[in-house]
Amino acid sequence: MDHNAAFQAYETAALSAIAAATDAAGLEKVRIEFLGKKQGQLKDLQAVVGKVAADQRPAVGKLFNDVRDKVTAALEERQKLLEKPKKSLTAIDIALPGTEFKLGKRHPLTQTMEDFKDIIGRFGFTVADGPEIEDEYHNFKALNIPDDHPARDPLENFYLSTASYAAGQPLQPRLLRSQTSTVQIRVMEQQQPPIRIVSLGRVYRPDTIDATHSCMFHQMEGLMIGADVTMAQLKTVLRLFATTYLGQDVTIRFRPSFFPFTEPSVEVDMSWGKDWLEIGGAGMVDPNVLKAVGYDPEVVTGFAFGLGIERFCMRRHQIKDIRRFYENDVRFLAQF
Ligand code: FA5
């Protein structure tokens, strides 16, 4: 075998043996076999160099050194690799520079809803949930909204093309709920008084979109039913809630209004600079609603409210246009 073929065979065998070693002891055997000074393959290779003609010896000697250095480097590399797991388990290098993580943020509306639950929870309200796809019974009829009421107009709602097959009920159209008041009914169907719940979530209306209106937005519904629930309590809860979330400088105003499911009804406004912005509707639960769920209006009374979550968040953070919430612009969202 000429010296080139011998070098090549040595290198190939050594590198594959190094790569195949799976622990330090195995690698040490490989080292003795291929790099040991007293015996082994390196010694044989040295003998090959000794046999070449004297004038070729410097060049072949250099080749020999290159091959040996390459194999030595590969072995050291493998040694480091095999040692690594042990090291990282036992030692953390606290002198290494820290890594900068860019943490994501929760959407401002999600943050607002968490704050809402926290604040209203302090008044003893627990959180209830309801479906976003509703039937006409829960969105309208049980809420004392009769068949011919303009709020039921197909142009005012997102009706679905499939009907609902709720057990024991006639086939009825379904729609994306237009208000969270539907959850009042669902909770009262399931529970007996006293009741003190809120429900937060999306509602859908084909409203014309502008700075304060969206076709999808969020509401927080509140419902309190008991033996002696009064309008004064409703006003106190809403005032305390609004000032806790928005600060003491906000003024809350109640205007007489009408909702089919409350009597009397009010519209609630908040001050914003020199202006007023409507934040919700509220009132004493109408006796017809209590009857629809099987309660006796002579025995229990209650109040209900529905607040627009976006508008609270807008005032708190001085956001002038509701559309910013839905554009998914990270530069906007990262500020909260
Ligand atoms: C209602 O939805 C009633 N369900 C509220 C209610 C509940 C009354 C319980 C009585 C008892 P209204 O349509 O006014 O009411 O909507 C309530 C609030 O939702 C508004 O004051 C406003 O803050 C918000 N809102 C209404 N429409 C939009 C919209 N298109 N975009 C953003 N927010 C809206």
Topology, element by element:
Blueprint: H1 3-20, H2 24-35, H3 41-51, H4 57-90, H5 108-121, E1 126-127, E2 133-135, H6 136-139, E3 159-164, E4 172-176, H7 182-190, E5 195-204, E6 216-226, H8 231-246, E7 252-259, E8 262-272, E9 275-285, H9 287-292, E10 301-308, H10 309-317, H11 330-333
Parallel strand pairs: 1-5
Antiparallel strand pairs: 2-4, 3-4, 5-6, 6-10, 7-8, 8-9, 9-10
Helix pairs in contact: 1-2, 1-3, 1-4, 2-4, 3-4, 5-10
Task: Walk me through the structure.
This protein has 336 residues and is α+β, with helices and mostly antiparallel strands. 41% of the residues lie in helices and 22% in strands. The protein is built from 11 helices and 10 strands. Helix 1 packs antiparallel against helix 2 (24-35). The longest helix has 34 residues, at 57-90. The protein is elongated, with a radius of gyration of 38 Å. It binds adenosine-5'-[phenylalaninyl-phosphate].
What brief labels describe this structure?
binds adenosine-5'-[phenylalaninyl-phosphate]; BirA Bifunctional Protein, domain 2; 11 helices; 336 residues; 41% helix; elongated
Reading the helices and strands in chain order gives: HHHHHEEHEEHEEHEEEHEHH
Give the overall form. Answer: elongated
Report low-confidence residues grouped into runs of 5 or more.
none
Could you give me the name of the CATH homologous superfamily of the largest domain?
Bira Bifunctional Protein, Domain 2
Summarize the biggest pleated sheet: 7 strands, mixed
